[in-house]
Amino acid sequence: MGMEDNRVQNGVKRGQLFEITVDGEKIIAYEGETVGAALMAAGQRTLRYTNKKEQPRGLYCGIGLCQECRMVINGVANTQACQTLAAPGCQVETRKSDQKRGSKI
Amino acid sequence: MKTAELAIIGGGPGGVVAAIEAAKAGVRVTLIDENQRPGGQIYRQFEKGFKITDPEVLGEDYEKGLDLLRQFSSLNDKIEYLNNATVWGIFDNNTLAFARNGASSSLSYRKLLVANGAYDRPVPFPGWTLPGVLTAGGAQKLVKTERILPGKNILIAGTGPLQLVLAHQILTTGGKIEAILEAGNINKNWFQVLKGIWGNWDYLKEGWKYLRSIQKSGVPLLYNHILLEARGDGRVEEAVFAKVDENWRPRPGTERTVKVDTICSGYGLVPSTELTMLAESEHKYDQLLGGYIPVRSENMETTVPGIYAVGDGAGVAGSKVAIEEGRIAGTSIACSLGHISDASADKFIEHSRRRMDRYNRLRKVLDKMSMPRPGLYELAKEDTVICRCEEITFKEIKTAMVDGTTRVKDLKRKTRVGMGPCEGRMCGPALIEIMRIHSNTSPEGDGYLNPRPPIRPIALGVLAAGTAKVKKLEKHKEAVNVS
Amino acid sequence: MFPEEAEVVVIGGGVIGSSTAYFLAQAGIDVVLVEKGYKSGEASAANAAFVWTITRKAGIDIRLSMHSRKLHLQLQKELYMDFEYVHNGGLLVIENEKEMSYVKAHVRKRTEDGFPLEMIDAKQALALEPLLSKERVIGAVFSPIEGTTNPIFLGASLNLQARKLGAEICHHTKVLGIEVLGGKVREVITDKGVIETNTVVNAAGAWGGAIGAMVGLTVPITPFQMAMLVTEQLPPCISHPIMGASYMVDEDTSKEGQLGCGLIASQQASGNLLIGGSWRDAGYDKRTSQEEIELMARVDVRSMPSLKDVRIIRSYANFFPHTPDDLPILGKVDGIEGFIMACGHNGHGVGLGPGSGKLIQELICDGKTSIPLDELSLSRFDSK
Q1: What is the largest distance, in Å, between two alpha-carbon atoms of chain B?
Q2: Mind listing the pLDDT tens digit for each residue in C185-236?
Q3: Tell me: the pLDDT tens digits for B333-349?
Q4: Contact between B116 and B10 (Cβ < 8 Å)
Q5: Which CATH architecture has domain B380-454?
Q6: What is the CATH number of domain A17-93?
Q7: Chain-wide mean pLDDT for chain B?
Q8: Taking a C-beta distance cutoff of 8 angstroms, is the pair C366, C24 a contact?
Q9: Among C228, C227, C234, C230, which Cα is nearest to C314's?
């Protein structure tokens, strides 16, 4: 996962480069990128698993409406990755189904 | 509580232009935008950190947008711009609720303009929930302003001009497109097409540019072709498509499978009407314009006096039309608030209307080509998920309907469809068509899922930080009213 | 084919009407239920989903609740379709001394009446429900028989089985009039047709007054709006229905016309939390207001602070049928043979539904009921 980079180089110059942690592993992100974008750039498409059938889901609408990109970000569950700007030290978790008692709410 | 003469919801071209016209006429405007910067979807700006080194690469839309946004920011002493603010409800007494900076708030207004845009039509087909299937709009945002390719081998499937724009953008970044599938075809009646194009030379020039770019790249642009299925183990690995007839139904024997890792599904846009519905405007169902749209006067006023609507959120017609509608609404509102005379308003509006009518002539041609045909809603198979949030399949919905349920509201109670956090946005458009086709339910009347506040998910703590005062309410006088 | 005659016509397809139709069908009665909307359409689809006895007052109130609760258990065994009835107990949470003395007085009266309640301390309350605020909880009442259900599924389940037993359930059918001749009910006129019958059950909830008016009766039922919030689906985090004592205190003592609010919280089988709740006099207006949404949020976050990041995905409201003495109107009426009242459950319809349905069935079939209905008759409102 760490090696892939789908970023486009032409047309823009990016700002500050930093790392965020996703499920314990580090990936790079740039200032101004959302967590969702950074994950897509790294080639990670699966952002969560559904409650009933544990199906993998990823980015769909990209503009904060479909609710498919919900992840645990900095300890807060159900945070939309496409609406959250990445920042240095950001902690991100994909989540298996929400069935277990005691899981983060 | 904050007050404004004119409250505008939405920072896209429609809202921004209306703000400019109204503010120039002396109206006290507050524009509420859910994004960090104005521009909406089409004129989306870059986040902080990105420096543009080659504007050419970013396309004409970007430049047009910049121009408009410069005008907007030059009026920042006259327009109050509330960014990162999500409107979550419209209530009695001309107030709206919004969430900003971690707290809920109220804004009361004399006039309201809803310009909240549209979103990609969610089309259920087998495999549409696989990671790697995204909407054309979602892909466009990634490519345009986040400068990230959604995948290494992309299939673009759907209908309409937005697909060509997306394809061109991906090609200019060096991305690889396997093919572009266009379900429709240019209207066979050339006279109609000519009538539509006539006078719309700028549209034509743009369209030609994209078609040329695609032609030069060698990427196949296949008319009358539709995506049937996305396949893969936990992610998109291949796609199945076929040639279709004029009802978008696959012709037997034409199926093909290609190896792709990304699918951009672009079947036009659906107007966001939660706010105009919450405001209790009348709506009608217009398939050419994307679905439910508020009923409006020629000056963009809905059936609720004082509430106006413009842009794709009131009927999908593109940015040029949104801009003219914004001009008409902004001017008309300024006039109704007494800031400008009827005479000067009328003159200005007349010019706008003429341009708008010209654009709409071409739009009709394009929209006819891209209007969803019955075959689109026959793609889903029994085990295809229709309600993504609650994971309700087509089979479960059909079973509930066989049982005698014919209204969307009742279907919701029975199957939980529409009860998830997307609040019915991703399943609603398909559900209405499914019900129309399978049980002859009219989309008007009981056809839709009632929006209820908050029309976007809002954290409990944000609502709790609100300042709505608990006041002593008058005892309702019609308590024994028979409804 | 629209039914042209029936032994009994039940007007109203909420929990009360659906229970009544079910028990009548089970007893072999030819029953038709008419509902102007869809099953569990109104208050029955928009409430706290509690099957609750803690705050029921001593006297006929608690007797009705206990009787109905037993029937919930019976239905859980009898009905084919699951309605998600979970009954592991519930809490009435106390957060200050004023609430504490009010609750203690209530517990005392209940114990004297033969229906005791158990007081527990803050530590025990937090062990049962860890999301409660450590800073605010000073004690609670715990009752092991409380529970939650899915009222929409309950209604659906009752209708499904009633149909199997021969009942006709007519949705989207509005009653336009009831013909009474010579002091007897003769027929029910609906917008889909006329049904000849000699027995009508008025289970029309907040519209009980309108139905009563059709036969010339003054029924003192007024709509009283209650609102709730729905969260997105969460992992299991609340195991019991929770009510704040302030809900009981305010509901009993609040002044006319005020917007009131108290803690209500439970978790549905789907994982969504139903939290709230607020009440106000809003006529037949089902829309929620910004004030009540924010007020509910404030009360809920104060009492359960870890919910602050949980997202609300919608609100709902409906009007409960309010009667002047907070008790339902059940039983026959003077002067009109065949017109039976079964409405005015003041927001306790889900809990009392099966019980009321059974009592009405007994009244119709046997002429006598397990709980005497004299205290609950319409005539108690006649001016002396």
Answers
A1: 72
A2: 999 999 999 999 999 999 999 999 999 999 999 999 999 899 999 999 999 9
A3: 999 999 999 999 999 99
A4: yes
A5: Orthogonal Bundle (1.10)
A6: 3.10.20.440
A7: 91
A8: no
A9: C230
CATH superfamily of C90-144+222-322: D-Amino Acid Oxidase, subunit A, domain 2 (3.30.9.10)
CB pairs under 8 A between A and C: 30
pLDDT band at B474 (very low <50, low <70, confident <90, very high): very low
Q: Per-residue DSSP letters for B257-279?
A: EEE-SEEEEE--EEE--HHHHHT
Instruction: Give pLDDT tens digits for B45-75.
Output: 999 999 988 877 677 778 888 999 999 999 9
C305 to each of A80, A86, C250, C274, C297, how far by Cα in Å? 22, 27, 22, 16, 11
State the complex-level ipTM. Answer: 0.96
Peptide bond into B122 cis (omega under 30): no
Pull the structure tokens for residue B144: 């345009």
Contact between residue B298 and residue B310 where contact means Cβ atoms under 8 Å apart: no
Q: Which residues of A touch C311 (CB under 8 A)?
A: 78
Q: Report the length, in residues, of chain C.
A: 384
Contact between C361 and C27 under an 8 Å Cβ cutoff? The reply is: yes
Strand ranges inside C259-381, DSSP E:
260-267, 272-280, 311-322, 329-333, 336-343
Under a CB-based contact definition with an 8 Å cutoff, are residues C274 and C48 in contact?
yes
3-state SS assignment for residue B110: strand
Q: DSSP strand E in B207-316: where?
A: 221-223, 225-231, 238-243, 256-259, 262-266, 269-271, 283-286, 291-294, 307-309
* Ramachandran category for residue B418: left, alpha or beta (phi over 0 → left; psi -120 to 50 → alpha): left
Confidence of residue B446 (pLDDT cuts 50, 70, 90): low
d(CA A58, CA A45): 5
Burial class of A49 by CB neighbour count within 10 A (0 to 12, 13 to 18, 19+): middle
Q: How many CB atoms lie within 10 A of CB B93?
A: 7
Subunit contact A61:B134, Cβ cutoff 8 A: yes
* Encoded amino acid at B291, one letter: G
Chain A residues in contact with B130 by the CB 8 A cut-off are 56, 58
Domain residue limits, chain C: 8-75+151-221+326-381, 90-144+222-322
pLDDT for B452 beyond 50: yes
Give the tens place of pLDDT for each residue, A52-98.
999 999 999 999 999 999 999 999 999 999 999 999 999 999 987 76
Residue C313 three-state SS: strand
Structure tokens at C123: 């530590």
Burial of B460 (0-12, 13-18, 19+ CB in 10 A): buried
Q: Most B CBs within 10 Å: which of A61, A85, A94, A98, as the mutation test of the B interface?
A: A61
Within C171-303, strands assigned E span 175-181, 184-190, 194-196, 200-202, 222-233, 242-244, 260-267, 272-280
Confidence of residue B449 (pLDDT cuts 50, 70, 90): low
Specify the pLDDT at position B435: 86
- Does the beta-carbon distance from A101 to C237 stay under 8 Å? yes
The CATH fold of domain C8-75+151-221+326-381: FAD/NAD(P)-binding domain (3.50.50)
CATH fold of B2-119+270-367 reads FAD/NAD(P)-binding domain (3.50.50)
CATH number of the domain at B122-267, please? 3.50.50.60
**Structure tokens of B81?**
């711009």
In whole angstroms, give the CA distance from residue B98 to residue B106: 6
Going from N- to C-terminal start, the domains of chain A cover: 17-93
Q: Does A95 touch chain B (CB under 8 A)?
A: no
Reported pTM: 0.94
- The residue of chain C nearest to residue A99, with distances taken between CA atoms, is C235
